[in-house]
Design goal:
binds zinc ion, 2 domains, Rossmann fold, 344 residues, 9 helices, Quinone Oxidoreductase, Chain A, domain 1, globular, alpha/beta, 6-stranded parallel β-sheet, 7-stranded mixed β-sheet
Length: 344
């Protein structure tokens, strides 16, 4: 089958290849025909070698599809089911993190799309526990956004809910993660403003279509609504830029909460003294836990979060380079790859 493969650990070395589909283990696994696999910033870091991987490996960790084959001990009723996939393929199961429900922190974790073959292919094999049923009404391509939604839930509700009913929440960065975080914050009862730069005007228009308020940088107290004069209760930083991190900490009200979701490999200078002066609480999240997946699926089923509007385009596997270029361009929100784009 065709697959987008990282062939060696160095910078680049990614190509469309013919690979043998993985064998199906005799117990506990399913083969999923991929409908769509989303491209995320992590993929760009895996390609440039700044995020670890075990080449040769098929990329792609934001996966939706249908179960087409199951191990002998698995209920065959799974076959034909539309699913999204949790990303952990295997963990040690014995460390303190695994034992306490945090497989995302396991030092021996192997994930699809970096440690084992992922979703930029016609199919992949995953443990049964990774499958999450998708609602019938959902466009299967949009289902690939369940994975970043689970990551948002991890960052916003663990170790405690960062957003509470009635909170005023500023989300910086209107990419896929920002627009998911804004919707989840609203579902948690918050009033939400999404902040972007001039280059994000299209994404901010989409935020308004989703019913969210927007602002263009630079944002100061005066450009916030009059009732926000003390500053937001919560800043959810999703842009990964130093400027947004700094201004987020400065804008926050006293005893506010700051959640870091945007990623940068750069050292960033921020006014950390404000954490003590204003008694701020800073949290973040890495990937997701089974509990965060459960919450994400419930938000989706309850239509409290919309995924389909965030889907900007589907590219066939052969055009993976165009899809990555589109992702890097900043136009659109989420692009996905599909071996058969008509499969949705
Ligand atoms: Zn990702
Ligand atoms: Zn472990």
């Amino acid at each position: 089958m065709k697959a987008v493969v990282k062939t060696s650990p160095d910078d680049q070395n990614v190509e469309l290849r013919d690979v043998e589909p993985a064998p199906l283990p005799p117990t506990g696994h399913a083969r999923v025909e991929v409908a769509a696999a989303g491209i995320c910033g992590t993929d760009l870091h895996i390609i440039d070698g700044s995020y670890g991987s075990r080449p040769p490996v098929v990329l792609g960790h934001e996966v939706s599809g249908r179960v087409v084959e199951v191990s002998a001990d698995v209920d065959p009723a799974w076959i034909g089911t539309a699913v999204a996939l949790e990303t952990f393929y295997s963990t040690c199961g014995a460390c303190e993190y695994c034992r306490s429900g945090y497989p995302n922190m396991c030092g021996n974790r192997l994930s699809i799309g970096s440690g084992v073959d992922g979703g930029f292919a016609e199919s992949l094999v995953v443990p049964l526990r990774n499958l999450h049923r998708l609602p019938d009404w959902l466009d299967l391509h949009a289902g690939a956004l369940c994975e970043p939604l689970a990551c948002v839930c991890q960052s916003l509700f663990d170790p405690f809910p960062a957003v509470k009913p009635g909170d005023r929440v500023l989300v910086t960065g209107p990419g896929a993660v920002g627009l998911l975080a804004a919707q989840v914050a609203r579902a948690a009862g918050a009033e939400v403003l999404v902040v972007g730069a001039e280059r994000d005007l299209g994404r901010l228009a989409l935020a308004r279509e989703l019913g969210l308020g927007t602002r263009v940088v630079p944002v100061d107290r005066d450009s916030l609504p009059p009732e926000w004069t003390q500053g937001p209760d919560v800043v959810i930083e999703c842009s990964g830029t130093g400027a947004a991190m700094r201004s987020g900490l400065e804008l926050l009200r006293k005893r506010g909460r700051y959640v870091q979701m945007g990623q940068t490999g750069d050292l960033v200078s921020v006014p950390l003294a404000l954490v003590s002066f204003k008694e701020l609480v800073i949290t973040g999240g890495f990937a997701s836990t089974p509990a965060s997946w459960a919450r994400a699926i419930r938000l989706l089923e309850g239509r409290q979060v919309e995924l389909s509007p965030l889907l900007s385009g589907t590219f066939p596997l052969e055009r993976w380079e165009d899809a990555f270029a589109a992702t890097q361009s900043g136009d659109g929100v989420k692009f996905v790859l599909s071996a058969d784009p008509s499969n949705r």
